[in-house]
Amino acid sequence: MSLTPSQQFQELLKKTATPLIILPSYPSRDAVASGFALALFLKNAGKDVTLAGEHIDTDKEALAFLAQPENILASIAGARDFVLAFDTSRNKIIGVRTENTDNEVRVYLTPENGSIDPRDFSFTPAQFKFDLAIVIGSPDKEHLGKIYEENPDIFYEVPIINIDNHSENELFGQVNLVDITASSNAEILADVLEKTAPNLLTETVSESLLAGIVSATDSFQNRSTTPKALQLASHLMDKGADQQKIIRSLYKTQPLHLLKLWGRVMAQVKWNESLKLIWACVDIEDLVQARARTEDLPQVLEKIKSNYSSAHMFMILYPETTTLMRGIVKAHSSEALTFFAERFKEGEVRGDTISFSIAAGSLDEAEHIVISRLQNLLTPMEKSS
Fold it and tell me: Which of 49, 69, 153, 361 is the most buried (most CB within 10 A)?
C-alpha cells in the first residue's frame, strides 16, 4: 500500500540530518512564519537545519516578535564542495601544498616518480551539504530567485518537499503537500506537524504557525479563512501561542508616519465596479506631509486590502520621475493577480505584489491609461457582471 504525501513527509523528516528550508525570493509573511516554525520544529528534532530566502534579511524584520531559527541565510553559496582527484594507481602523490594569490588558488603536488600525467586528474562536484530541501509558499522553482538560479542541481540531486496553497503550483516536488483549499501554508504545515510529532509542537513553533495563519487570513476576517484554520488556531493557542500578541505585533503597533500616510491615501481611494478595483494616487506632497517614503506604500496597500473584502484588486500609483509613474498592485486571489499581470507584462511580480512603471506626465494620465487598458480587455461577460 503506497504512502500518502503526509506519510512520505514524515518518513523524509525521520531520515534527514541536514534539511534546507527554502522560501520564495519575495515571500508572504505566512511563508516566512511557516519557515520559522518548521526550522524550530526540526531543531527540536535534533536536525542541523538551515532556512534560506533571497531577501530573508528584510522579510524577517516584520516578524521580529517571533522566535527565530539560528541558521538563516540569504544565499546557499558553498552548499557543495568540488573535488580535485588524482589517480594514484600508477604514481603516488607524496606531497600536497596550496598557495593563495590575488586571483588564484594554486595546488602543488609532488609525485613519487617522474612527472604527473594530466589525464590522471578529475574535477567533480561533491554531494550537497543538505540531504533534503523543503520549499514553502512557492508555485514553482523560478519564484525562488537566485537560490534556484545559482543552485539548480539541488532540485535534481536532493529530495524535494513542496508545501503550498497556490492553485497554480506546478507540483515540482517528490512530495507535494499542496492544498489549494487551505487558508495558508501555516495551516498545511500545522496539520502535518501535529501528525508527525505533536510533542515537538512547542510554544515557539505553535506561535509561528499561528502568526502565519493570522497573517494569511487577516486575523480570520477574509474569505480564505477555513473552518480547519479556526480549529488549528484554537489548538495552537492550547499549545501556548499568544494570539493577542501576534495581532498586536502584526497590526496594532504601527509607526506614526505610516498611520498618517494611510489616512491620506484612504481619503483618496476610488472604486471601479466592473474591475472590482480599488486604487488611489499618491503624490509627493502626501509623502512629505506624512514624513513617509515610497517604501512605505506596500504596507499601506496591504492595509487597504485587508479592509475591503468586496474588491478583487488594489492599486497605488505614485510619481517615479516627472515622466514616469509607478504602480503597485495586490489582490485577494492569485487569479486576480494573474489577470493584472497578463495585461501589464512589463510589470514585475514579487510574491503577492506586482510593480510596474508607465510613461505618463501626471498621475491622472497614468490612471487613465491603466484603467482603460484593464477595461478594454474585459470580456462582455466580465463587463456585465
Answer: 49
> Residue 260 sits in a domain of what CATH number?
3.10.310.30
**Segments of the chain scoring below 70 in pLDDT:** 1, 59, 126, 252-253, 377-385
- Which set of grid coordinates corresponds to residue 248? 498586536
Tell me, yes or no, whether 306 and 369 share the same domain: yes
Within 10 angstroms of residue 72's Cβ, the number of other Cβ atoms is: 19
Count of CA atoms in the C-beta half-sphere (13 A) of 247: 9
Supply the CATH number for residue 35's domain: 3.90.1640.10
How is the chain split among helix, strand and coil, in percent rounded to 5? 40, 20, 35
Residue 377 pLDDT: 63
Using CA atoms, how far apart are residues 373 and 186, in angstroms rounded to an integer? 36
Distance of alpha carbon 75 from alpha carbon 69, whole angstroms: 16
d(CA 1, CA 300): 51
pLDDT in tens, 277-315: 999 999 999 999 999 989 889 889 988 887 787 888 999
pTM of the model: 0.75
Domain extent at residue 219: 5-77+129-250
89 CB neighbour count, 10 Å cutoff: 6
Same domain, residue pair 33 and 138: yes
Residues 182 and 297 in one domain: no
53 and 179 in a common domain? yes
Distance CA 265, CA 259 (A): 10
**pLDDT for 152-177, tens place per residue?**
999 999 999 999 998 889 999 999 99
